[in-house]
Specification:
single chain; alpha+beta; seven-stranded antiparallel sheet; five-stranded antiparallel sheet; 41% helix; elongated
């Protein structure tokens, strides 16, 4: 009997140890579940759906059978519900846009993939009928060839109802009592194992980067802020990360994350990161939606929004969990727009300067041709051309005649040109292919060596080819009240 009691006691100790380990694991993944900014929902099935049915039949059964069996508050807020209880029992027909090709394609791919998906899009409606868009990751339970349960996570929604299971207090007494307690502990162990598998699945399918950090030396919250920041960089190491987190830094294997340092990825001179670190320390190592500027393994810039939950024990930070969203494309697009806007402002400044110079000249110059020459000189400087020719159009005779030539130094009227200059004569519009092109497009047109034969003035190609310094010519239509009055050639 004593041997039996000893054996049961040892079995009890083993189960207690495994139970404690699983409790810690569940606590860890429960923290992850609550920290993530995703909405989590479990879909139940009014009747299991056989995988042997056709895709069309399974799709119709999904809309008849699937209902919300469990969800978190973030999921409820996603659809504008005040309480999560208001979502329980809702079916796909209550929020799916069944007319959306995107949603229907996602549903079919989901079914074809054994009711699993990762970061696929759906179009849905909230309680007020407003259209919403989500990225979904899902994993389902298949039993006896039928799908019976599905878990879904949706991006940008946090919080999951915290569930706790009561654990039986062990009472050690006689051999009969030990055996009863061991049975109860084994049942609890099975439940926690299932819970760990469920949260591990969430960890793996999440479209957020999720990671756990440890400190090689605990950081006292009573140290000066600058000292705490210095220690944070010195002692923090990454202990775990999901595949999404690893991919954000160009790593193929999540195991490559282990041992990585903050200094490996943070841009130290970034003011954004300096503000981030100070805010982190000042808020007791807890932050939400805080931006950082980092680099991946190849040195490429990366930008993230971070949620951080740190474990504080006896006034010391000892480790924690965090999640992050990749906003790199958004930030790079903003930077490109800013650069384009700065370049536009610079161009406007140049244009304004040219306009002011022209207006100043107009105030002192009474001769119209002299003023026109000044304006054309300003245009030539802005376009960076060596030579410019101004042609006026006579609509009655369909003739284009050179009015003025512009050089970097001066302007010359037509009668001042040398007699053998090919532009000194009048041209019929039929002899100017470029004229018809400008009339059709109403946009500046560039003539190069490749297209010169098709567009230059007929009879001037040989002269054009002799001008070795002219690599290209810009042609700009001139209009008045939308009527063509001539064009400007820049060489």
């Amino acid at each position: 009997m004593l041997d039996r009691i000893t054996q049961l006691q040892q079995e009890n100790d083993r189960l207690q140890a495994e139970l404690a380990q699983l409790r810690e694991s569940e606590k860890r993944y429960r923290t992850l579940f609550e920290l993530g900014s995703e909405g989590i929902v479990r879909f139940g099935y009014k009747q299991p759906i056989p995988l042997t049915r056709s895709i069309d039949e399974q799709l119709e059964l999904c809309y008849r059978s699937i209902y919300v069996a469990e969800a978190n508050d973030a999921y409820a807020r996603m659809f504008e519900y005040e309480k999560v209880e208001d979502t329980i029992g809702l079916t796909l027909n209550d929020f799916h846009d069944r007319h959306s090709e995107i949603t229907q394609a996602t549903m079919r791919n989901w079914i074809e993939n054994q009711y699993a998906c990762h970061s696929t899009e759906t179009v849905e409606f909230d309680r007020h009928g407003r259209k919403r868009y989500f990225l979904n990751s899902a994993a389902s339970t298949i039993e006896n060839g039928c799908v019976v349960c599905t878990w879904v996570s949706q991006v940008d929604i946090t919080q999951l109802r915290e569930t706790q299971q009561a654990l039986l207090e062990a009472e050690q007494a006689r051999s009969q009592e030990l055996e009863r307690i061991n049975t109860q502990l084994q049942q609890t162990l099975d439940l926690l194992t299932e819970s760990e598998e469920r949260y591990r699945t969430l960890f793996e399918i999440s479209s957020e980067g999720i990671f756990r950090v440890e400190y090689e030396q605990p950081i006292s919250l009573h140290l000066p802020i600058e000292k705490q920041i210095d220690w944070y960089y010195r002692y923090l190491r990454f202990a775990e990360g999901n595949a999404t987190f690893a991919a954000m830094y160009g790593l193929d294997n999540p195991k490559d994350v282990i041992g990585m340092r903050l200094s490996d990825i943070h841009v130290a001179e970034s003011e954004q990161n300096q503000d981030f670190m100070r805010a982190l320390v000042e808020n007791g190592y807890q932050l939400r939606n805080a931006e950082t500027e980092e680099v991946d393994r190849y040195g490429n810039p990366r930008y993230f929004l971070n949620n951080i939950a740190t474990i504080i024990k006896d006034g010391y930070a000892i480790g924690g969990w965090a999640s992050q969203l990749d906003i790199t494309e958004l930030r790079l697009a903003q930077q490109a727009l800013l650069k384009a806007e700065q370049e536009r402002v610079a161009e406007l400044a140049k244009t304004n300067a040219a306009l002011k110079n022209s207006l100043d000249h107009l105030a002192t110059e009474l001769d119209l041709n002299a003023f026109l020459g000044h304006v054309l000189l300003e245009i030539g400087q802005q376009l960076q051309v060596d030579l410019g020719y101004l042609f006026f159009y006579e609509p009655n005779s369909q003739i284009l005649e050179l009015h003025m030539r512009i050089t970097p130094e001066a302007t010359e009227l037509n009668h001042e040109l040398e007699e053998d200059h090919p532009f000194s004569k009048s041209f019929s519009t039929e002899d100017l292919p470029i004229w018809n092109t400008l009339l059709q497009t109403r946009k500046p047109f560039l003539i190069t060596h490749e297209n010169a034969a098709e567009h230059v003035f007929r009879g001037t190609l040989e002269w054009q080819e002799q001008q070795q310094k002219h690599q290209a010519g810009i042609n700009i239509l001139l209009t008045l009240a939308d009527e063509p009055i001539g064009f400007l050639v820049g060489l």
